[in-house]
Design goal:
Disulfide bonds join 129-138. It is found in: Membrane. Residues 745-772 form a coiled coil. This protein is mostly helical. It is 62% helix and 2% strand. It contains 34 helices and five strands. It has helices at residues 3-6, 13-24, 28-31, 33-39, 46-71, 75-82, 88-119, 144-150, 170-175, 184-194, 208-227, 229-239, 242-255, 260-269, 279-292, 299-304, 313-346, 358-369, 375-408, 416-431, 439-449, 453-469, 472-483, 489-494, 499-526, 540-568, 586-593, 647-652, 668-677, 695-703, 711-723, 731-762, 769-776, 781-811; strands at 139-140, 159-162, 165-169, 530-531, 534-535. Helix 6 runs antiparallel to helix 7 (88-119), helix 7 (88-119) crosses helix 20 (416-431) and helix 30 (695-703) crosses helix 32 (731-762). The protein starts with a helix and ends in a 5-residue tail after the last helix.
Length: 816
């Protein structure tokens, strides 16, 4: 059983799509996108965001999904198969996902703490200043009724509860500096959930509540991953659909709040279109698209590797892009409605309540919920949505690393549960740093720099590898072997292998990736990090560079390691940039799926396995052979009832190179031309003698010129015939075998020259003289290799060959 047979597979297409949606649509759609929209013109930001999503994000997303589906392997090995020098791309993606997973489950743990507080009936704690953890700076207007009652019901005086005292006017509160007052929800998050210390230098010890919540989050993640993709698919039926139901409910509630129109005016009705002319707006939109769609993290590539090869990943990439855009735009509308409600309630400008990241999710929203009827209900729905979005994305992030280990080290696959537990445990231990009193500062560093300029650099290198080193023309044929050929002009331009996709892959996407990489790198160099007014110390910059460049270091290390191993085995530098033997053969896939150009059926991507018959013509009995994945490896043991190789195959086979420098391919144009000349026949195919009318005389010639092959080489070749591949103990053995084959080819060439002269004297005619003689007189190494194969077969099977040739002559089959 092959590695592909052992690989899991999704239960249904729907489960795969939902798992990908759950992985891509995450917390950034809720707390990062609204802040970006606020800073870049409000609703005007939707224009560059949606354009970048569908013009650039969707094609790159489709590239990663199709790579995983075609190769049926994860990021750690798919790039090695394309070019060993670039294998570090996959491991860099795995490391990036691992770093993100470290802090992502910390967020999931925070949502669990909020949900626990809601279930236990303690939602009042983030709306009150009377808790034990509140400071004297806590200011709340939710206690104005009790303050108003205490002052005799004088409703003209706006009263606030500040520093544990009633009777302070709202004007005084508003005059205080921002650093002198905090909201109850902010203190609940900082002092209760985080137990934050004043600086990074004060460690503060472990926060037991956060540690327990983090442990629960990792246990849930590990249990799901142990069950495999089938369980992830089943869970995705819930985790990918419920957030959309919840956001629709919250949307309806938010747009009906008093003051919602204030936020909607800024977000939709009164956007600042002048920001569209700012290049930074486009750069931020493109960057957010890559992060939001999880491009370059390796997760979607890993999830797609469990697909059937004829699965329509082009359609799925479009669905995922639409789902991600919908959540961002729809969720942004709900967020701005709530911000407008808050601004109206507090009688301040909207910019005074806008916060991004954790501040929006864990400070602004909880405070807004407490001002609504049934606050516990809305708070539960909101934090349940955050939990589901977080845990579903976490499944994909952790799966990347686990899949990388399984694919790189196949013996580990039977110990899947152990690997998942080890990865989860060590990532949990790394996350304990974020559960300390100073953990929020490290969290900010992880959040800002785990997927920084290195992510964009890896995306650019991935595009260069596939489009320019492996070649776009080759990869387009790979895609067509899975999804078929375009049916009309529209799909030739906008289809899965159309011109638009190729243009984006080859020109637009690489330029965008490297440009954004430069901008992000500049921001990393010039950034001064802070949190809630606290400026990070200078030594934190070292952590920034470690997080930002770790995946690049891994990329260089893996490439150097492969180079060292290749040179140690005697291979040159060139082999590091050549496609490997284990890269799937598109012709085998096309034949299995029936996706050749001559087998189109109704509906794009749906094909029949029946090839349209061609008009029969007089021809030589050489018909299309089975396609092979290696130059010499799949020789057939007996020529009896086997089909000799077609001219198209003979012209493209590399005779001396066991490590394939490019996949053996026969173009569909060549196949169609060949089919027109050589339709299927009922003739007996018997190797070289079937080429001649005087089969007996030709057989005598061949028998008089045998090639003597040593037993060791013969054993290796015969073993390859049954197993379909070569296996060597070391590189020296492979090189020795290659040298022997080269010697036999040279000897075979000399024998064939002698045979050719003798055959010309005794052959009466050829059935298809022009075609055969062009092939016979070819000086290409490909034909000499095929000739050697036939000579070896003749030497081993000359008795059967002669009998079959005589039978063919008596039956008159070749006299047609």
């Amino acid at each position: 059983m092959t590695a592909e047979d052992n690989r899991g597979q999704w239960n249904s297409d729907l489960q795969f799509i939902l798992a990908c949606v759950g992985y891509s649509v995450g917390l950034g759609n809720i707390w990062r996108f609204p802040m970006l929209a606020y800073e870049n013109g409000g609703g005007a930001f939707l224009i560059p965001y949606l354009l970048c999503s569908f013009v650039v994000g969707f094609p790159i997303l489709y590239l990663e999904m199709s790579l995983g589906q075609f190769a049926r392997t994860g990021p750690a090995t798919v790039f090695r198969k394309l070019a060993p020098a670039f294998q570090g791309i996959g491991w860099g993606q795995a490391i990036t996902s691992l770093l993100v997973a470290v802090y992502y489950n910390v967020i999931v743990g925070w949502t669990l703490l909020y949900l626990f507080g809601i279930v236990t009936g303690r939602t009042y704690e983030w709306g009150s200043c009377e808790n034990a953890f509140n400071s004297e700076r806590c200011a709340s207007d939710l206690h104005y009724e009790s303050c108003w009652d205490g002052f005799g019901g004088n409703e003209t005086e706006s009263m606030f509860f500040y520093n544990g005292t009633c009777g302070v006017s709202a004007e005084f509160i508003h005059s205080l500096a921002e650093s002198q007052k905090t909201s109850p929800s902010e203190e609940y998050f900082d002092s209760y959930i985080l137990q934050r210390t004043p600086s990074m230098d004060e460690f503060g010890g472990l926060n037991l509540k956060a540690v327990i919540a983090l442990a629960i989050a990792w246990i849930l993640t590990a249990l799901c991953l142990i069950k495999g993709v089938k369980w992830i698919g089943r869970i995705a039926l819930f985790t990918a659909t419920v957030p959309y139901v919840i956001i629709c409910i919250l949307f309806v509630r938010s747009v009906t709040l008093p003051g919602a129109e204030v936020g909607l005016d800024y977000y939709l009705y009164k956007p600042d279109f002048s920001t569209i002319l700012n290049y930074q707006t486009w750069q931020r939109a493109a960057t957010h698209v890559c992060y939001s769609l999880a491009i370059g993290f390796g997760g979607l590539l890993s999830l797609s590797s469990f697909n059937r090869r004829n699965h329509n990943c082009f359609r799925d990439a479009l669905i995922i892009t639409c789902a991600d855009g919908f959540m961002s735009v729809f969720g942004g509308t709900a967020v701005f409605s709530v911000l407008g409600f808050m601004a109206t309630t507090l009688n301040v400008d909207i910019q005074d309540v806008v916060r991004g990241g954790t501040g929006l999710a864990f400070v602004v929203y909880p405070e807004a919920m407490n001002r609504m009827p049934l606050p516990w209900l809305w708070a539960f729905l909101f934090f349940a949505m955050l939990f589901i979005l977080g845990i579903s994305s976490q499944f994909g992030l952790a799966e990347v690393t686990c899949t990388a280990l399984y694919d790189q080290f196949p013996p580990l696959r039977p110990y899947k549960a152990h690997i998942v537990c080890v990865v989860s445990f060590f990532t949990f231990v790394a996350g304990l740093l974020l559960c300390t009193g100073s953990g929020i500062y490290y969290f900010e560093l992880f959040n800002n720099y785990s997927a920084s300029f290195a992510l964009m650099l890896l995306i650019g290198l991935e595009l260069i590898l596939v489009m320019y080193i492996y070649k776009y023309s080759n990869y387009r044929k790979d895609i067509r072997s899975m999804l078929g050929y375009p049916r009309n002009r529209f799909t030739e331009i906008l289809g899965p292998s159309g011109a638009y996709i190729g243009f984006i892959w080859m020109i637009v996407a690489p330029l965008q990736a490297f440009t954004i990489c430069g901008f992000v790198l500049a921001e990393v160099i010039t950034s001064n990090d802070s949190y809630s007014g606290y400026e990070f110390p200078g030594w934190s910059k070292a952590i920034v560079w470690v997080l930002s460049s770790l995946s690049i270091v891994i990329f260089v290390f893996v490439g150097a390691l492969n180079a060292f191993q290749s040179l140690r085995r005697g291979n040159g530098w060139r082999s590091l940039f050549q496609v490997q033997l284990d890269w799937p053969d598109r012709d085998d896939i096309s034949r299995q799926l029936g996706t050749s150009r001559t087998s189109l059926d109704e509906g794009y991507g749906r094909y029949s396995n029946v090839v349209s018959p061609k008009e029969a013509k007089p021809h030589l009995n050489i018909v299309r052979p089975e396609r092979h994945t290696t130059p010499v490896a799949q020789l057939r043991t007996s020529p009896i009832n086997r089909r000799p190789a077609s001219p198209a195959t003979l012209r493209r086979v590399s005779p001396l190179t066991l490590r394939r420098s490019a996949p053996i391919r026969v173009t569909h144009e060549e196949e169609e031309a060949e089919a027109a000349i050589s339709p299927p026949s009922t003739s007996v195919h018997v190797g070289i003698p079937s080429c001649f009318i005087d089969t007996n005389k030709a057989l005598d010639i061949v028998e008089s010129n045998p090639i003597q092959i040593d037993e060791e080489t013969r054993t290796i070749m015969q073993k390859s015939l049954t197993e379909g591949k070569f296996e060597f103990d070391n590189i020296q053995a492979m090189n020795d075998f290659k040298n022997k084959i080269g010697e036999y080819i040279r000897k075979g060439e000399d024998k064939m020259k002698s045979m050719e002269a003798q055959v010309e004297e005794h052959t009466t005619r050829f059935t298809n003289a022009n075609r055969l003689m062009d092939l016979w007189n070819s000086n290409e190494e490909a034909f000499r290799t095929e000739g050697l194969k036939l000579l070896m077969d003749t030497e081993a099977e000359h008795v059967k060959l002669g009998r079959a040739a005589k039978d063919a002559k008596r039956s008159g089959v070749n006299e047609k």
